[in-house]
């Protein structure tokens, strides 16, 4: 009885402290604050809370010690919270946390102490952020982690020892990034890894040396990479059983390519450019080879492979593409005499073997700097330097020169650093980047120039750095996009020009940026975007224009962007939204931000063309009283209608009905008439006088359904109660 009384007392205390926008389930110690307008972590969450769901808020930054008041948390969900930065020590004190979901935010960089204190964490979800770079040591405190999800970020490079400390990690998910450089020791510290997902990246060769460190991995996903050839003994993974190389660009596979992976059972080579395969020597355990979707030439050249299949008892999936007499025939149905040699197509020649790595440099570290030869890093951060130091080791891959006083970057500033991948020059008072400043940096992928005083850039400044993929120019003094700069950067993927003073986006500004995927222009003074300004960027996926001076949706400029999936127009003074304004990107758009604009009127046809592909729509903090029909937005995961003064009359009845059917918390409230002010649209009784009321209304507003729902159930339906509970809680 004492324990029960104590539990009751704690429950009463928790109930008293539940933050106003949230719903607290004291019995299960759960707190839900979904799709609200929270801008800071509430400090009145009950101390004993174990599961905290904060999805769909607007935190931007998670400060140090943000959750010190809730030390018993085991599950924390921060999806879709517009988080851009995790301060060092943000999760300190959460020693019991086992699940952390930070998916679909704007996190760009993980520092060494960002995840400090999470020593019990088992699952970390960072999918759908814009993480460009991970510093070694970022995961060093996560000794209990078993699943790390980094899908759909902006990673190009993985440095050596980047996953150090993840001793029990079993699944590493790196799909849908832009990886094309892996350090040879990138996976060296993952002794327990069983599954590695590297599909949908930009790997041009099988990274055999990096993968050889994974002795225990049993499944490797490498599909959807532009790999053209698998060389001799390219893969040495002692425990590998499942290998996926589907939808690549394979033209040839060496006979002994998998000889050092003796446990291999399943080999998936679907949808490549293979005309055939040789007998796969050493792959004695192979059970199935999938070759569907390849242009197989079933001539005498294929006989050795066909005989090997029968001898080794390997099941093959695939069909002939040529000669015409055998087109469509499955490999298993062929007989050797049918594979004739009347026409011999010469097999493709394998590419030349890669260069052997050069010996490490004997150059010493510059005075006052710190060089780490084990991870190939050099750092002179915040040393009050006036000139860029030289004589770093030639194998340096990351160079951190932040917070010095260089003012200019002279020509040939980084001699001998041919292997440099990441260069940090933030906060160095730089006003001029001279032509040839980056000459010789042929491996450079990341260049950080934020928080300087740059107002212009000469294209020649980037001469000698053709691989550059990420360029960060945030918080400088640009009044226009530096036109012509990108012609020497054919591999540029991400361009950040946020918080400058750019007034317009003109024709030709982005000429040469044909591979650009992410363009960040938030916090400028852009009033106009020329109809052809974005024309060179046909691969653009994310366009962020929030916090500018646009007075209308730049519909004409969105023409010719077939891959655009995210558009941010928040905090622009767009008062009216006309017909079909998003039609040019309707077939690809998934995330649309229209919040905090002072929007007063939206045409009923404004969303023409948009539909099931839309996953998140932000309309909070506007002034319109109605919104268009969105009944075909069936894929919505996030819908935010907070702080919109809806006029709850009969014209809003379709919205009321639609919201009642959604399993989402949308935050819509009535602004008028007076008797409904402040009442949730979902619960307002003003609709009960409307024609057609009562036909198909939700249970909570239909008396008959309410009465029926109050009767005890005769049978327990397994598996459905939790779903009903979640729906009711969200409602």
Automatic annotation (TrEMBL):
Residues 294-342, 645-691 form the LRRCT domain. It is found in: Secreted, Extracellular space, Extracellular matrix. Transmembrane segments: none annotated. GO terms for cellular component: plasma membrane. SMART domains: LRR_BAC (SM00364), LRR_TYP (SM00369), LRRCT (SM00082), LRRNT (SM00013). Residues 1-15 form the signal peptide. It comes from the Eukaryota. Residues 339-360, 692-731 are annotated as: Disordered. Keywords: Disulfide bond, Extracellular matrix, Glycoprotein, Leucine-rich repeat, Repeat, Secreted, Signal. Its main location: secreted. InterPro entries: Cys-rich_flank_reg_C (IPR000483), Leu-rich_rpt (IPR001611), Leu-rich_rpt_typical-subtyp (IPR003591), LRR_dom_sf (IPR032675), LRR_TM_domain-containing (IPR050541), LRRNT (IPR000372). Residues 17-51, 364-398 form the LRRNT domain. Associates with collagen and binds to collagen fibrils. Belongs to the small leucine-rich proteoglycan (SLRP) family. SLRP class IV subfamily. This is Chondroadherin-like protein. It comes from Chloropsis cyanopogon. The gene is Chadl.
């Amino acid at each position: 009885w004492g324990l029960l009384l104590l539990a009751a007392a704690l429950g009463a205390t928790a109930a008293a402290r539940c933050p106003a926008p949230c719903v607290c389930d004291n019995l299960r110690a759960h707190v839900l604050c979904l799709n609200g307008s929270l801008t800071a972590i509430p400090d009145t969450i009950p101390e004993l809370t174990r599961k905290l769901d904060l999805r769909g808020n607007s935190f931007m930054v998670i400060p140090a010690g943000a959750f010190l008041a809730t030390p018993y948390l085991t599950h924390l969900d921060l999806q879709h919270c517009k988080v851009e930065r995790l301060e060092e020590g943000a999760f300190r004190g959460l020693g019991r946390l086992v699940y952390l979901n930070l998916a679909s935010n704007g996190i760009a960089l993980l520092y060494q102490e960002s995840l400090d204190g999470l020593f019990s964490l088992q699952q970390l979800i960072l999918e759908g952020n814009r993480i460009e770079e991970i510093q070694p040591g970022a995961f060093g405190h996560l000794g209990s982690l078993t699943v790390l999800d980094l899908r759909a970020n902006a990673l190009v490079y993985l440095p050596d020892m980047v996953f150090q400390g993840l001793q029990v990690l079993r699944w590493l998910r790196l799909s849908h990034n832009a990886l094309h450089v892996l350090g040879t020791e990138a996976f060296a510290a993952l002794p327990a890894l069983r599954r590695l997902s590297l599909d949908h990246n930009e790997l041009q060769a099988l990274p055999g040396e990096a993968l050889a460190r994974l002795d225990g991995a049993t499944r490797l996903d490498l599909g959807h990479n532009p790999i053209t050839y698998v060389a001799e003994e390219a893969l040495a993974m002692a425990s590998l059983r499942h290998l996926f190389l589907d939808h690549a660009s394979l033209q040839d596979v060496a006979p002994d390519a998998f000889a050092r992976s003796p446990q291999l059972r399943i080999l998936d080579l679907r949808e490549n450019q293979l005309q055939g395969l040789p007998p796969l020597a050493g792959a004695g355990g192979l059970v199935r080879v999938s070759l569907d979707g390849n242009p197989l030439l079933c001539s005498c050249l294929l006989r050795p492979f066909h005989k090997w299949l029968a001898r080794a008892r390997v099941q093959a999936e695939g069909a002939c593409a040529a000669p015409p007499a055998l087109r469509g025939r499955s490999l298993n149905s062929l007989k050797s005499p049918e594979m004739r040699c009347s026409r011999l197509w010469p097999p493709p020649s394998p590419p030349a073997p890669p260069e052997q790595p050069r010996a490490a440099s004997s150059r010493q570290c510059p005075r006052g700097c710190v060089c780490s030869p084990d991870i190939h890093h050099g750092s002179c951060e915040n040393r009050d330097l006036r000139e860029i130091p030289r004589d770093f080791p030639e194998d340096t891959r990351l160079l951190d020169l932040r917070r010095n006083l260089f003012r200019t970057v002279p020509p040939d500033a980084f001699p001998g650093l041919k292997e440099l991948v990441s260069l940090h020059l933030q906060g160095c008072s730089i006003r001029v980047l001279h032509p040839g400043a980056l000459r010789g940096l042929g491996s450079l992928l990341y260049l950080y120039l934020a928080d300087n005083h740059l107002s212009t850039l000469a294209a020649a400044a980037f001469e000698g750095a053709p691989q550059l993929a990420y360029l960060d120019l945030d918080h400088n003094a640009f009044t226009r996009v530096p036109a012509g700069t990108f012609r020497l950067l054919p591999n540029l993927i991400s361009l950040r020009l946020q918080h400058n003073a750019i007034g317009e986006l003109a024709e030709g500004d982005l000429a040469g940026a044909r591979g650009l995927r992410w363009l960040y222009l938030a916090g400028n003074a852009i009033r106009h975007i020329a109809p052809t300004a974005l024309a060179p960027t046909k691969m653009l996926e994310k366009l962020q224009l929030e916090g500018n001076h646009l007075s209308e949706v730049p519909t004409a400029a969105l023409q010719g962007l077939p891959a655009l999936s995210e558009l941010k127009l928040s905090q622009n003074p767009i008062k009216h939204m006309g017909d079909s304004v998003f039609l040019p990107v309707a077939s690809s758009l998934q995330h649309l931000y229209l919040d905090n604009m002072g929007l007063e009127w939206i045409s009923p046809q404004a969303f023409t063309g948009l539909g099931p592909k839309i996953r998140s729509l932000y309309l909070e903090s506007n002034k319109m009283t109605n919104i268009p029909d969105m009944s075909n937005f069936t894929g919505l995961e996030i819908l935010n209608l907070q702080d919109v003064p809806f006029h709850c009359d009969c014209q809003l009845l379709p919205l009321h009905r639609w919201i009642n059917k959604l399993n989402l918390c949308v935050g819509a409230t009535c602004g008028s008439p007076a008797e409904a002010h402040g009442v949730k649209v979902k619960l307002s009784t003003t609709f009960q006088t409307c024609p057609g009321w009562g036909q198909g209304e939700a249970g909570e507003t239909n008396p008959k359904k309410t009465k029926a729902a109050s009767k005890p159930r005769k049978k327990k339906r397994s598996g459905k109660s939790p779903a009903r509970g979640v729906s009711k809680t969200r409602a």
